[in-house]
Design a protein that fits this description.
heterodimer; A: mainly alpha; two-stranded antiparallel sheet; 4 strands; 72% helix; B: alpha/beta; six-stranded mixed β-sheet; four-stranded antiparallel β-sheet; 24% strand; disordered N terminus
């Protein structure tokens, strides 16, 4: 029944796209590990890290689009769920350092020794086990989303008010995590990671595995999202987005539909953040910055809101441009980002994916008139 | 005026219903009886109280006085809108609101009585019974050819028929249809009359309408409202021969 649920929901395009994502996740790390460094096909370590990072961003974009494109809720705080997942992973990685830190304390991470913590705070217990951290990576963002969504959707908060609430949430978390006495490393955050599951985070094989894991996670998220949107639940969800009160008259509890997708989306963002942190090597409060959430919304807008493939493509296009421009012409990047936003809003209301569909339809029409 | 006993075989029973807004009596001692399986047309000039009557039946407006009994037992003056809807009174509003990004078929599937729980809908495919019911409704509203068309691309008339279909899909005991042919062409009006006659084979219907040619095409018992009370009742020929009705419609 589960396989039927997962396959019938997916269109042919989405199936091909999932295979493409998996292919990237296998081929890129393989070229890094197997090719000699002199070969033209060799993928250097920094490119491998970049692809892995983009894959995590793509998962975040998909999570944003589930909420924005399919529930109609413009979330301006999704990077908070990403960062919370990242912090859970960071706590696990800090505990793995053990006595190899600068201060050599077997229990306390360096920043706690430095800040004169007498003992490990209660909420750090358990994070030395990977299974516990993995559970928290899903649970912490989900519970926050459940609490926020429960109150917001039940009181029928919608539109710009909901956007402001999500933005306020991420800003509040930013300020909280900046504080040294919160116990999460203050504005320096957590870094100098050594091992993940007993493998060195610096090793080429570990980096390759993390890149593959990021692709696998994205592929799984795409399959799950496709199945949900393609099911009768998805039909009802889109109807709630378009005409919520009409759905209530038909006897649907609109808030439950939105809440389920909001929580699922937060969990996806959390997992993406957790995969991001060991590849980047640091997590600090700047991940909560409101600008990050807004940028994620922009990826979705560029790729195509309300499609499943669009956010992934958008995340890759914008981040590739960002990587290139911040390197080649650093002063231009912010202007380019602003210009991109204007161009997309004015000329590409359905993003790159919409443009492609439009061009294809025009081509078909031209063929039809010619024939 | 005939008086009916409190316990009644009638599907809908209104007796002495009065509603006033700031001293203005929108309904004034209105009584009405709808039999099971009946289709009734309600006509009357603007401000006669047609929409207020619908509001009272669906629980949107509370009457100041009077009895409203559904199905011989439920006292509608004490229930809220959602409860009344679950009892089996469905209402089609004047302005059509179909789901624009869904096909005609999905619109009907969403309205179909039955599954509403989100986790069951995640795995459920339409059952054979549901598919049969959809086919039946599509045939009644004459939209088989458009079933895969998006709601946004339907004409005004088609949207109205889809709305009637969605109401039918909820399988109410009594359907209240508010001005179904407003803004329709003559051909569409004629088709709508046929659709409603078809609907009436399985459902009781109350239609509020201005359009006389449409009411004639329905060919059912007519109730004329005027200033919140019943002015006349009978076939369209009978009521239009009534001098009081002529005066109300033409005299002022």
């Amino acid at each position: 029944m589960i396989t039927r649920f997962l396959w019938t929901g997916m269109g042919r395009n989405l199936r091909l796209f999932v295979l493409l994502v998996l292919a990237v996740g296998i081929v890129v790390p393989a070229l890094n590990l197997l090719m000699p460094k002199t070969s033209a096909f060799y993928v250097p370590a920094y490119a491998l890290q970049l692809i892995g990072k983009y894959l995590c961003y793509a998962s975040l974009a998909l999570a944003v689009d589930l909420v924005w494109g399919f529930c109609g809720i413009l979330t301006l705080g999704h990077a908070a769920f990403f960062a919370l997942g990242g912090y859970c992973m960071g706590m696990y990685l800090m505990r793995q350092i053990g006595a190899r830190g600068v201060y050599g304390n077997p229990i306390l991470p360096d920043f706690m020794v430095f800040l004169n913590y007498p003992e490990l705070p209660w909420f750090w217990h358990g994070f030395n086990h990977f299974w516990f951290a993995a559970a928290m990576i899903v649970i912490v963002p989900s519970v926050l989303a459940l609490a926020l969504g429960w109150f917001a959707f039940r009181s029928r908060v919608t539109g710009v008010y909901l956007s402001i609430i999500t933005q306020a949430m991420t800003f509040a978390l930013l300020l909280a995590f900046f504080r040294n006495d919160m116990g999460f490393g203050g504005n320096n955050g957590m870094t100098d990671f050594k091992d993940i599951l007993g493998y060195s985070v610096q090793a080429d094989t570990t980096r390759a595995a993390l890149c593959f894991a990021s692709a696998l996670a994205l592929a799984i998220f795409l399959v799950i999202s496709g199945a949900i949107i393609g099911s009768r639940f998805g039909t009802a969800l889109i109807a709630v987005r378009d005409a919520e009160s009409r759905m209530r008259f038909l006897g649907y509890r609109a808030e439950t539909y939105k809440l389920f997708v909001f929580v699922l989306s937060a969990a996806m963002a959390g997992i993406a953040g957790a995969l991001y942190v060991p590849q980047i090597g640091i997590i600090n409060p700047s991940e909560f910055a409101p600008g990050n959430s807004i940028e994620a919304v922009l990826w979705v807008a560029v790729g195509g809101r309300g499609t499943l493939i669009g956010p992934v493509i958008g995340a890759f296009i914008v981040n590739f441009a960002k990587t290139y421009l911040t390197g080649a012409l650093p002063e231009v990047w912010l202007f380019a980002l602003g210009a991109l936003f204007i161009v997309v809003t004015l000329f590409l209301p359905k993003g790159v994916v919409g443009l492609w569909a439009q061009l294809r339809a025009r081509n078909l029409a031209r063929k039809a008139t010619a024939a | 005026m005939k008086t009916a006993p409190r316990s009644t075989s009638a599907l809908l029973y209104l007796s002495g219903v009065t509603v006033s807004f700031d001293g203005f009596k929108a309904l004034n001692n209105l009584s009405l009886l709808i039999e099971p399986g009946e289709m009734r047309a309600i006509i009357g000039p603007n401000g006669a109280g047609k929409t207020t009557m619908m509001d009272v039946i669906t629980g949107k407006t509370r009457p100041d006085e009077g009895e409203v009994v559904f199905d011989g037992q439920a006292d509608l003056t004490k229930l809220d809108e959602a409860h009344i809807a679950t009892l089996g009174i469905g209402r089609k509003f004047q302005k059509p609101t179909v789901f624009e990004n869904h096909t005609v078929r999905d619109n009907l599937l969403l309205a179909l009585a039955g599954l509403r729980s989100w986790y069951k809908l995640l795995g459920a495919a339409p059952t054979r019974a549901e598919n049969n019911r959809l086919a039946e409704i599509l045939s009644i509203i004459r939209m088989e050819a458009q079933q895969h068309m998006l709601g946004a691309r339907l004409s005004h008339g088609q949207k109205q028929w889809l709305e009637i279909g969605m109401l039918l899909a909820q399988n109410p005991k009594l359907m209240l249809v508010d001005e179904p042919v407003a803004g329709m062409t003559d051909v569409e009006t004629e088709t709508t009359a046929q659709v409603l006659r078809e609907v009436n084979k399985s459902h009781s219907v109350v239609v509020v309408e201005h359009d006389m040619s449409f009411v004639r095409a329905l060919g059912v018992k007519v109730t004329v409202l005027h200033e919140g009370s019943m002015l006349a009742e009978g076939s369209l020929d009978q009521v239009s021969a009534d001098p009081r009705v002529v005066e109300v419609y033409l005299g002022r």
